[in-house]
């Protein structure tokens, strides 16, 4: 826990700044400051006023306690968000910022861009459920700040209405950013053009290893390209980390070898010092011994000088003394020789030890050079791997370009279908937004109604309780009516689908009858007719799958019924077009049957052409099935997201209801207390 004195000072500063601006401190904020955990300020679901935001912004400029700031679902105004971001520009300790569900718009996006340019400590920002992408100029400012930032590691931009132009701005920012590692762009409106812009920017960015693009109407090939780029960045990051780990290990080994070398050198110097001390002690001992011998010789000489007068009497003693002196001289010579030999032997040992130390040092240098060469070889291998990856990417791009050139017509049809699907999704999304706006308006209307009724609630608590019960009953009735309407809508939709299927079956039966007549008339063209019949059956399966997609996309009953009828008309037009093509082919076959000599060759050519067409149709149907599977997955994710949104709305409504009940229950006490 942070120091109690620092917490008290933080609360006092907040209260003082609020009073200086002429506003009262919010009790919810004071309560959170009182329960402040280690480095985290959680103000989620608290409605923060601009005065509170101004005070918090001033405090965040110099505080050093908080590393995480959670402001999700705080309904921040543009002014309050700008004041908070201005305070965070000078902050140097906050690393996590959560701004989920605050409906940030143009001013908030510009303030966020300025924050990203100036702040050098924030590593993770959550901006889910805002509207940053609605205003393109403001979002471009935000992207410019992202490009200039050098500390951000994780960015969450889910559900921010980002269009393909916003995705292009993000792509430019990613080209200039060298630190962002995780980017979440799920449930936006990026589309095909935005996906291509993001794919084109990924070769310039080598740090981003996670990019989520689900729910953005992006084709599967672009998603696969993004996944491949992310996989390459992850491999590059893994290789870089392994290289750094190996470099760290090698540097540790080199430092260890240097330490051992220095330790051995110090031991050698200590040994040399000890030997020099021993030599000095032996020389001092020899000098003392020579001095003693000199003193003895002096004594002997004095005795000899004293006994010169008794020379004849002491000749024998003198000869003996001379013999002794000669013996002592020989002993002195031998001692000197021993000392010289000892010094020479010690000098040889010292030289040998120096030579061994030089050899150890050269060996360590050779090991160090070998380690450097190994590190250089590893770097060369990493560069070679990067070149191989680039060549493989180029080959993949060339093959993909050839594939796009060969299947241009199928992709044009797929793009048209995707555009229609995008229109349906936009309509569904617009309907969802209309429902949300209607819900917000209803909530605003309820809040205004409650504010108006609060003036009379002090005397009518029981009437308000009865009103709440009636509102709950009305809400249950509305829910039951909505469920009934939904069931009726589903029944009508099933009836319309069955009718469309019956019409298609009738048309297909008519077409099959014609094909059987043609097969009886021309036996040689029977194989081609059977293949065309299979093509029509596959078209019928595709039409049924489109019906299932339309059924899964239902949001509002009247719009979807109109869209379903349009789809049925389009499918009928397509079936008639296929029928006309078949009739034209049958006419050509009849004309070719008139020529007796070239009949078999033309029939064979037509059969080959029909095989190519059927293979193309089969490939198109496989692609359509994969697209349908991805669309069903997206729809499932969207339904899960809508369920989560409904749960959050229900939770917020319950929070609002609890707050109103608490306010209603506490209103008599508030009426007795003096006003602030």
UniProtKB/TrEMBL annotation:
Gene3D superfamilies registered for this protein in UniProt: Ribonuclease Inhibitor (3.80.10.10)
Major location (coarse): cytoplasm
Organism placement in taxonomy: Eukaryota, Metazoa, Chordata, Craniata, Vertebrata
Keywords, in A-Z order: Coiled coil, Cytoplasm, Cytoskeleton
Species annotation: Castor canadensis (American beaver)
Domain of life the protein comes from: Eukaryota
InterPro entries per UniProt: Centro_Cilium_Assembly, Leu-rich_rpt, LRR_dom_sf
Protein name per Swiss-Prot or TrEMBL: Leucine-rich repeat-containing protein 45 isoform X1
GO cellular component, one term: plasma membrane
Coiled coil: 304-648
Subcellular location: Cytoplasm, Cytoskeleton, Microtubule organizing center, Centrosome
UniProt xrefs under SUPFAM superfamilies: RNI-like (SSF52047)
């Amino acid at each position: 826990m942070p120091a109690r004195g620092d917490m008290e000072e933080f609360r006092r500063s907040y209260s003082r700044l609020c009073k200086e601006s002429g506003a009262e401190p919010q009790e919810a904020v004071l309560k959170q400051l009182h329960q402040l955990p280690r480095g985290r300020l959680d103000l989620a679901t608290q409605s923060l006023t601009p005065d509170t935001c101004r005070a918090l912004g001033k405090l965040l400029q110099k505080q050093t306690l908080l590393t995480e700031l959670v402001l999700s679902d705080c309904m921040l105004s543009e002014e309050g968000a700008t004041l908070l971001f201005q305070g965070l520009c000078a902050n140097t300790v906050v690393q996590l910022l959560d701004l989920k569900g605050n409906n940030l718009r143009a001013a908030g996006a510009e303030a966020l861009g300025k924050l990203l340019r100036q702040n050098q400590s924030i590593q993770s920002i959550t901006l889910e459920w805002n509207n940053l992408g609605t205003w393109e100029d403001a979002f471009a400012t935000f992207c410019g700040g992202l490009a200039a930032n050098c500390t951000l590691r994780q960015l969450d931009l889910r559900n921010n209405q980002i269009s393909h132009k916003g995705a292009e701005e993000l792509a430019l920012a990613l080209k200039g950013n060298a630190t962002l590692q995780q980017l979440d762009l799920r449930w936006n409106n990026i589309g095909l053009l935005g996906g291509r812009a993001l794919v084109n920017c990924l070769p310039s960015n080598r740090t981003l290893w996670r990019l989520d693009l689900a729910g953005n109407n992006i084709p599967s090939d672009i998603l696969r390209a993004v996944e491949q780029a992310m996989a390459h960045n992850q491999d590059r990051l893994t290789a870089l980390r392994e290289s750094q780990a190996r470099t760290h290990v090698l540097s540790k080994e080199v430092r260890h070898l240097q330490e051992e070398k220095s330790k051995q050198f110090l031991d050698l110097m200590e040994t040399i010092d000890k030997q020099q001390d021993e030599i000095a002690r032996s020389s001092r001992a020899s000098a003392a011994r020579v001095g003693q011998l000199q003193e003895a010789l002096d004594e002997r000489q004095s005795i000899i000088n004293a006994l010169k007068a008794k020379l004849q009497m002491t000749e024998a003693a003198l000869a003996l003394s001379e013999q002794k002196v000669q013996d002592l001289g020989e002993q002195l010579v031998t001692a000197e020789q021993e000392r010289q030999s000892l010094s020479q032997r010690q000098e040889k040992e010292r030289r040998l030890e120096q030579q061994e130390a030089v050899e150890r040092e050269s060996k360590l240098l050779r090991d160090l050079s070998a380690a450097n060469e190994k590190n250089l070889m590893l770097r060369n291998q990493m560069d070679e791997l990067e070149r191989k990856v680039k060549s493989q990417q180029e080959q993949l791009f060339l093959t993909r370009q050839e594939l796009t050139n060969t299947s241009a017509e199928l992709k044009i049809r797929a793009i048209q279908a995707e555009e229609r699907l995008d229109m349906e999704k936009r309509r569904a999304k617009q309907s969802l937004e209309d429902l949300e706006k209607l819900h917000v308006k209803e909530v605003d209307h309820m809040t205004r109604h409650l504010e108006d009724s609060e003036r009379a609630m002090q005397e009518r608590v029981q009437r308000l309780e009865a009103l709440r019960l009636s509102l709950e009953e009305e809400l249950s009735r509305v829910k039951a009516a909505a469920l009934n309407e939904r069931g009726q809508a589903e029944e009508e939709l099933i009836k319309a689908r069955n009718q469309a299927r019956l019409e298609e079956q009738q048309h297909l039966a008519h077409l099959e009858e014609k094909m059987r007549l043609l097969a009886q008339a021309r036996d040689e063209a029977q194989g081609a007719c059977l293949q065309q019949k299979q093509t029509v059956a596959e078209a019928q399966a595709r039409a049924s799958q489109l019906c299932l997609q339309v059924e899964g996309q239902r949001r509002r009953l009247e719009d979807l019924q109109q869209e379903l009828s349009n789809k049925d008309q389009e499918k009928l037009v397509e079936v008639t077009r296929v029928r006309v093509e078949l009739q034209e082919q049958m006419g050509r076959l009849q004309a070719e049957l008139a020529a007796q000599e070239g009949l078999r060759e033309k029939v064979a050519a037509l059969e080959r052409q029909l095989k190519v067409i059927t293979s193309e149709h089969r490939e198109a149907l496989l692609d359509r099935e994969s697209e349908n599977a991805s669309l069903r997955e997206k729809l499932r994710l969207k339904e899960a997201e809508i369920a989560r949104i409904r749960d959050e709305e229900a939770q917020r409504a319950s929070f609002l209801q609890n707050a109103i009940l608490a306010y209603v229950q506490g209103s008599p006490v508030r009426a007795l207390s003096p006003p602030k």
